[in-house]
Design the sequence.
């Protein structure tokens, strides 16, 4: 339906001319006109044409347009608790909308929250009609007489019945990935409201967060059984029925196991797809810089590459794209970016992509970034670079393998997802403003008021890897799309959003799955146009782009999944994999905690001295404090068992006690069984046996629990039970061994044990009566041993322990 356009003020501070909503650029100065369509929360009773706070124009029920997009928020009051979950979930931009502005009752008459990146889209068939309007008031009047072209994306319920089995399964996989982070913020009920779950092609997007009572995983299984199971496609109907049954009966009792089954099913179904990736990269110095501090892989100007990731291709076939931006204002940024590219490229070649499970690969990518960081830091130290003389670089990296895409980043270089419906940034900048949001201090447009809001809080080469927190997301694209990696020479001032409609959308519409490849010329030309846009419209920095164009086709019938697939060793190790969506696996509570406490070299002008030259005099006060704390800790441990036994009012707690440490152990989005990861044993029913570690992997039949009668005190060479693990213990995964495709063992190291457990379960006495079962001792810190992955996985949760606990475990 054709309708009148509203009016937008030009964001150019020297222009600020009124423009029709139908215009893409200011008619006076040619500045791009960003359009922010917002979803309103609260008791909104505005009719179309109503103007709130002299800028937000109501276009239809709950949908507003910001007519002054250059202005930041004028709200400085303390934020209500209702906003905190939105802020804490800022690391999930692909799925969760973010707070754009908050209008208190004193401004809007009633408290209103405006959400950006809500599941709204612009109906393509309803063209806006420019009007000869000279004021915002006239625009408001005109809008009240017309209907808006901005609509909500369809709900899953509206699309489910006609969606393919792959789409249905992919949507459920994304919902399961969101279960843990939303549960942590007590908003998991958002996933149990059909109209709240919207779909943007492949991707699940939430309309808003729900604050209903916290549901259980059984509630989720019943919800799926009632709403999605009756109209599930035949290829997955049997699988989904059994899955819902297992959840409702409590056999699948955590999100880790649920994700393991969904992951295994996706592996089987995606084998029917062909995935052709076309890649182009380009980097340019820009019109004002003396040298190019950016770098990319493949090398800038390389011929456009095409990679086929079909199921019949080698399993280790992959595609890698990297963009690095040397930190401006630091000497040697070009050296740092080239060092990072060379290191990451070499490490990717050494990865066994055929054997690595998703979580092990995610961990390997994090470690690869840390290795690159160490190489740059070592060169900084060897050249005696301190403070702002240290060279550094951002990094954003995309690795495509089979049906998955892994996105890794540090800094403010970005990745954008582009489809026929819009353009979405899927990474979160590591800057001060974003940190303020993650910590719950302010929403983004409020945080931008700070003078240092754009300063980076982390980058490669600026500090030790123990202080670096890379973000890794795992995504599963299921439609033709483009992933754009770029430096801020392009992304600043919304240039990517500006390019989507004019440059990217025509290419996507021209090359749907039925019409074949885009051709290398089209993608290379797109890269050149994007670089030219950055140079022309920004012009103050280097510009680098990396483009991955996905073209996905179904080349054979989908298999039918009638039952739950057997969980292989691979599936067990990925049982707690994160979403893309997450974005990503590392933008977790651990990152938030670290960002809150760590000093950042790029924000503070003072840099730490290299380890080779410690400042000895500054350690003396700390040594005294450490001795005092150690003495108090030792006294507490010594007295605790006595107090426990002598106090009749104290009973063992049903939940694990917190691990004593200077910093809390926080949940992690990574899977618990990847080598180098940490897990915490959870509380189990009273009649459940404690898991036990043995001296080496056993060849006994899979599924048979470790027998203390047969193995305690076994002869040399036989498997021997070493001891029990108690709830609350923090463990490190130090090795993994697959005895067969279905049998996986892990070697664990005990990092910490709840203090009360040491007095609760004493070691085996010397005078053990003959014929009586020997007592199984509680394993102390430092002990290592083996256990079946299938036995420990359901009883543990991935955690990110504080640095001091990590060091104690080494």
Sequence:
């Amino acid at each position: 339906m054709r309708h009148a356009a509203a009016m937008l003020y030009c964001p150019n501070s020297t222009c600020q001319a009124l423009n029709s909503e139908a215009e893409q650029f200011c008619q006076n100065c040619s500045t791009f006109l960003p359009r922010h369509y917002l979803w309103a929360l609260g008791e909104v009773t505005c009719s179309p044409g109503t103007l709130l706070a002299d800028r937000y124009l109501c276009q239809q029920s709950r949908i507003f347009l910001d007519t002054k997009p250059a202005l930041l928020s004028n709200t400085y009051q303390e934020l209500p608790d209702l906003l905190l979950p939105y802020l804490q979930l800022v690391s999930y931009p692909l799925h969760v909308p973010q707070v754009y502005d908050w209008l208190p009752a004193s401004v809007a008459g009633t408290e209103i929250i405006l959400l950006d990146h809500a599941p709204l889209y612009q109906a393509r068939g309803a063209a806006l009609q420019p009007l000869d309007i000279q004021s915002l008031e006239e625009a408001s009047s005109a809008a009240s007489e017309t209907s808006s072209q901005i609509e909500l994306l369809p709900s899953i319920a509206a699309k489910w019945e006609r969606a393919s089995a792959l789409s249905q399964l992919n949507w459920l996989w994304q919902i399961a990935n969101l279960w843990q982070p939303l549960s942590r913020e007590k908003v998991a009920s958002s996933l149990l409201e059909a109209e709240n779950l919207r779909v943007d092609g492949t991707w699940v997007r939430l309309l808003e967060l729900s604050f209903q009572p916290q549901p259980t995983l059984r509630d989720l299984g019943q919800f799926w059984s009632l709403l999605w199971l009756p109209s599930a496609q035949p290829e997955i109907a049997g699988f989904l029925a059994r899955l819902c049954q297992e959840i409702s009966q409590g056999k699948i009792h955590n999100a880790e196991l649920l994700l393991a089954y969904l992951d295994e099913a996706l592996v089987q179904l995606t084998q029917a797809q062909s995935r052709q990736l076309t890649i182009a990269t380009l980097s340019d110095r820009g019109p004002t810089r003396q040298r190019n501090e950016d770098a990319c892989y493949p090398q800038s100007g390389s011929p456009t590459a095409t990679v086929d990731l079909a199921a019949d291709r080698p399993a280790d076939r992959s595609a890698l794209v990297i963009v690095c931006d040397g930190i401006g204002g630091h000497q040697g940024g070009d050296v740092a970016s080239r060092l990072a590219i060379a290191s990451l490229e070499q490490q990717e070649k050494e990865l066994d992509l055929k054997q690595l499970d998703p979580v092990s690969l995610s961990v390997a990518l994090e470690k690869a970034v840390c290795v690159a960081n160490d190489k740059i830091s070592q060169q900084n130290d060897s050249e005696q670079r301190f403070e702002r003389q240290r060279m550094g670089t951002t990094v954003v990296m995309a690795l495509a393998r089979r049906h998955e895409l892994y996105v890794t980043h540090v800094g403010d270089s970005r990745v954008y997802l582009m489809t026929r419906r819009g353009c979405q940034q899927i990474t979160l900048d590591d800057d001060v403003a974003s940190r303020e949001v993650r910590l719950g201090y302010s929403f983004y447009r409020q945080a931008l008021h700070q003078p240092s809001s754009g300063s980076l809080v982390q980058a490669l080469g600026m500090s030790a890897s123990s202080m670096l927190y890379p973000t890794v997301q795992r995504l599963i694209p299921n439609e033709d799309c483009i992933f754009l990696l770029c430096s801020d020479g392009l992304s600043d001032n919304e240039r990517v959003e500006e390019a989507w409609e004019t440059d990217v959308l025509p290419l996507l519409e021209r090359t749907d799955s039925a019409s074949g490849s885009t051709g290398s010329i089209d993608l290379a030309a797109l890269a050149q146009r994007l670089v030219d846009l950055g140079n022309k419209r920004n012009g103050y920095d280097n510009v680098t782009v990396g483009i991955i164009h996905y073209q996905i086709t179904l080349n054979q019938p989908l298999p039918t999944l009638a039952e739950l697939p057997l969980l292989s060793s691979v599936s067990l190790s990925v049982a707690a994999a994160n979403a893309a969506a997450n974005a990503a696996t590392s933008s977790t509570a651990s990152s938030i905690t670290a960002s809150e406490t760590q000093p950042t070299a790029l924000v503070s002008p003072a840099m730490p001295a290299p380890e080779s030259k410690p400042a000895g005099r500054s350690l003396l006060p700390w040594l005294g404090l450490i001795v005092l704390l150690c003495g108090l800790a030792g006294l507490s441990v010594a007295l605790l068992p006595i107090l426990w036994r002598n106090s009749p009012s104290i009973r063992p707690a049903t939940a694990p006690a917190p691990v004593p440490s200077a910093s809390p152990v926080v949940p992690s989005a990574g899977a618990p069984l990847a080598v180098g990861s940490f897990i915490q044993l959870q509380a189990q029913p009273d009649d459940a046996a404690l898991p036990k570690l043995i001296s080496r992997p056993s060849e006994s039949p899979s599924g048979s629990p470790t027998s203390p009668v047969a193995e305690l005190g076994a002869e040399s060479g036989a498997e021997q039970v070493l001891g029990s693990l108690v709830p609350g213990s923090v463990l490190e995964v130090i090795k993994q061994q697959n005895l067969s495709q279905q049998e996986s063992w892990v070697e664990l190291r005990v990092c910490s044990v709840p203090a009360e457990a040491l007095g609760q379960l004493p070691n085996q006495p010397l005078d053990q009566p003959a014929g009586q079962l020997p007592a199984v001792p509680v394993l102390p810190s430092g002990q290592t041993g083996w256990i079946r992955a299938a036995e420990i996985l359901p009883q543990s949760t991935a955690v990110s322990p504080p640095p001091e606990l990590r060091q104690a475990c080494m």
